Amino acid sequence: MCLYVRNRHSFVVDVTDFRGEGITRSKEYLERHGIFDTSQVNGTWSNLNNFNKIRNCLVHCNGNIATYKNKSQIISVVKSTKNIQLDGDDKLVIEKEYVGFVIDEIERFLLEIHKQVFEKNV
Q1: Is the pTM of this model over 0.85?
Q2: Taxonomically, which superkingdom (predicted)?
Q3: What's the pLDDT tens digit per position in 33-59?
Q4: I want to staple 66 with a disulfide (CB 3.0 to 4.6 A). Which of 17, 81, 90, 93 is the partner?
Q5: 21 neighbors 27 (Cβ within 8 angstroms)
């Protein structure tokens, strides 16, 4: 999307000129160029950030928060999120409803980006 927007508007600045990684950098790029209004996805964006924290704990520590670099961050996410919890060994337990929630939120976010970037014919 960022490449599409850059080419369409002949922007000099590229998404790779922004700090950060992946979706965060792309979001920043689209915001700075006035292409993406994040007010439409504030709650969803917060959820995506939490999903990323959970994902990182799963990938880098096999879901064991005792070995995760920011244990308190994961505990905070778990306490404020339905269908995810910690077992007695401080390992993440994810219920299938949480996975469905993640999929729904990602879909909502991507559809909103698509609407703002492509359907407005930006």
Answers
A1: no
A2: Bacteria
A3: 888 888 888 889 899 999 999 999 999
A4: 90
A5: no
Within 8 A by CB and 6+ apart from 94, the residues are 54, 63, 83, 84
- In angstroms, the CA 102 to CA 44 distance is 10
3-state secondary structure of 84: strand
Tell the residue number behind the tokens 């007695």, with chain if given. Answer: 88
Closest CA to 36 of 45, 48, 28, 47: 28
Q: How far, in Å, CA of 94 to CA of 113, rounded?
A: 28
Low-confidence ranges of the chain (pLDDT < 70): 120-122
Domain map (residue ranges) of the chain: 1-36, 41-122
- pLDDT, position 93: 97
Cβ(68)–Cβ(74) below 8 Å? yes
User: Which two structure tokens, joined as six digits, stand for 13?
Assistant: 């600045």
Question: H-helix or E-strand containing 22?
Answer: helix 22-32
